[in-house]
Amino acid sequence: MHIFINCGDPNGIGPEVTLKALAELPQKKRSHTILAGSYNVLQVINKMLGEPLALERVESLDDAKKVEGIPVLEPKGALDFQPSYGLTAVDSGGISGRGIVLGVAACMNGGAAALVTAPSSKEALHLAGFHYPGQTEMIASLCRAARFIMILAAGKLRVGIVTTHVAVRDVSELLRRSLVRDKISILHETVINWFRVDNPRLAVTSLNPHASEGGLFGWEEEEIIIPAIEDARSNGVLVEGPFPADTLFPRWKDFDAILAMYHDQGMIPVKMAGFGRAVNATGGLPFPRTSPDHGTAFDIAGKMIADPGSMKCAIEAAFRFAGRH
């Protein structure tokens, strides 16, 4: 069972945290990883770390499983790439985007059991022609997954998001009864299959303050969220809500997972609880996908001070999820 790791934007901290994380893992796990990225960039970082890893450039996925060291597949444009740390660039975005494509193909074709994605710059991906709101949506599109969910997990705090990389002003317009119902369903399935929780108890946040206070602050709870919860209950899901987010998250331990309506509503509590060890996972795909809880950190790229904690957690979670998939 191999895990495919895309090293992310080579102008950011992705390659650094990938190698640092792998250096902290047991050899048995390291020997079952495949990297996508610039071999030259990775080797320079490896030398700066004291060469703890045996990296080997390979030409194909088949070759990757024949080498003794950690294989590095180079996306188009990576061979002669020279990093410009901290800069948003079309060439670095292209390497990152094509690495994602390679990883998805490997997982879809059975060459890898799970995908881990190091941080990529959304702006650089756009410059390179990958016009998606984020990696989650890109991977789901490449898989042709009609139903998927972003989940951030820090220990037993697990939060799924209904709307992900969209403007806050668009959230209400995007909410649909069917969408909320589907997200509850996928979150339920993922918590059972990946996190190994039998008959999980879920909670759903409201969109508006005080769950709209009987309609004083909005109509979304009454017309969309409550009917979606009732639909899920009729399908056997143990789910409660909608609860105001500010009163729900302080008692998160009462639930096995929480569904939030929009990005920051769900992300902020998880990152406050476990930043640096939280894992971003995508449920509903044909294979497990994880990533760290941070971005490219262009401000510290190339300084060799990035913390690999979350990346290590993401890789370990990918191995666990792949074994349960």
Would you give an account of this structure?
This protein has 325 residues and is of the alpha/beta class. It folds into 2 domains: 1-145 and 287-325, Isopropylmalate Dehydrogenase; 148-284, Isopropylmalate Dehydrogenase (3-Layer(aba) Sandwich). 40% of the residues lie in helices and 17% in strands. It has a 12-stranded mixed β-sheet with strand order 3-4-2-1-5-12-11-6-7-10-8-9, with helices on both faces. The longest helix is centred in the first third of the chain and has 19 residues, at 90-108. It is elongated, with a radius of gyration of 20 Å. The model has no long low-confidence stretch (mean pLDDT 95).
Q: In brief, what are we looking at here?
A:
With 325 residues, the protein is an alpha/beta fold.
